[in-house]
């Protein structure tokens, strides 16, 4: 089985990157992490990648004259490493429409809310303040609109009365680590079909696929 090469872009601690590295450690998993790049020097995720023997680089956006040259460096690194899919895993830079259009339906993002609600930053604080009873996370295909694009997987968690931003974030993160490897596996093994704004996995809606038994990575 040839595995699809994936580049992961990070900015911080990299716990989602770790979930992807752990999934890809299984030879039956349809994707392999070929490259990790961080826009922040010293991001914790860089050491996680190196510990797994993965090429990990810092592409510091502040060292570039503009967004175009920063993104050109990312693009060049990803293509030179043979990546066919990009996973954003806590990558806190907005990618331009030009960059995104070079990777049509090939960029995944994870966001700590049940999109399309609570796009943007400070999600966990805002969702508690709004008085919601459910929170969650979403893996979606990246389009030029921020935190938008076809949804591949979502998981919901309760918001408990004594939750703080930290306790809720931890509960959501546990689910992020479940759904991100699953969604990447579906995209890497060409099991995703797009109909307008909707993504279908194996002909069923993405959420239906999530509720089904654990994904079979060996499926081709
Ligand atoms: C995760 O909660 C992820 O959903 C969020 O940043 C965190 C990164 O954690 N991403 C966004 O808010 C993107 N809009 P990690 O570095 O431990 O994976």
General description of the model:
The chain has 220 residues and is of the alpha/beta class. It folds into 2 domains: 103 residues, Formyl transferase, N-terminal domain (Rossmann fold), CATH 3.40.50.170; 100 residues, Formyl transferase, N-terminal domain (Rossmann fold, 3-Layer(aba) Sandwich). 34% of the residues lie in helices and 25% in strands. It contains 7 helices and 10 strands. The strands form 2 sheets. A 7-stranded mixed β-sheet has the order 3-2-1-4-5-6-7, with helices on both faces. α1 packs parallel to α6. It is globular, with a radius of gyration of 17 Å. The mean pLDDT is 94. The structure holds glycinamide ribonucleotide (GAR). Glycinamide ribonucleotide binds next to α1, β5 and α6.
Features:
220 residues; alpha/beta; Rossmann fold; 2 domains; 7-stranded mixed sheet; 3-stranded antiparallel sheet; globular; binds glycinamide ribonucleotide
Short description:
The chain has 220 residues and is of the alpha/beta class. It has helices at 15-24, 44-51, 67-80, 97-101, 123-129, 165-188, 206-211; strands at residues 4-10, 31-38, 55-58, 85-88, 107-111, 134-141, 151-158, 192-195, 198-201, 204-205. The strands form two sheets. The protein has a seven-stranded mixed sheet, sandwiched between helices. The protein has a three-stranded antiparallel sheet with strand order 8-9-10.
């Amino acid at each position: 089985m040839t595995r699809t090469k994936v580049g992961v872009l990070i900015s911080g601690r990299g716990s989602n990157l770790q979930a992807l590295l752990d999934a890809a450690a299984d030879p039956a998993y349809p994707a392999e992490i070929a490259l990790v790049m961080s826009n922040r020097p010293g991001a914790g995720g860089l050491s996680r990648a190196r510990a797994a023997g993965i090429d990990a680089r810092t592409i510091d956006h502040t060292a570039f004259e503009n967004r175009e040259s920063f993104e050109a460096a990312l693009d060049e690194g990803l293509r030179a490493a043979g990546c066919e899919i990009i996973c954003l895993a806590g990558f806190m830079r907005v990618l331009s429409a030009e960059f995104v259009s070079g990777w049509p339906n090939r960029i995944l993002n994870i966001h700590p809310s049940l999109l399309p609600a609570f796009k943007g930053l400070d999600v966990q604080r805002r969702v508690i303040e709004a008085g919601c009873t459910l929170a969650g996370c979403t893996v979606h295909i990246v389009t030029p609109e921020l935190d938008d694009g076809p949804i591949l997987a979502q998981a919901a968690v309760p918001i408990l009365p004594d939750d703080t931003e930290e306790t809720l974030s931890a509960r959501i993160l546990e689910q992020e680590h479940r759904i991100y490897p699953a969604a990447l596996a579906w995209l890497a093994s060409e099991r995703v079909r797009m109909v307008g704004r909707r993504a279908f996995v194996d002909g069923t809606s993405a959420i239906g696929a999530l509720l089904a038994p654990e994904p079979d990575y060996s499926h081709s």
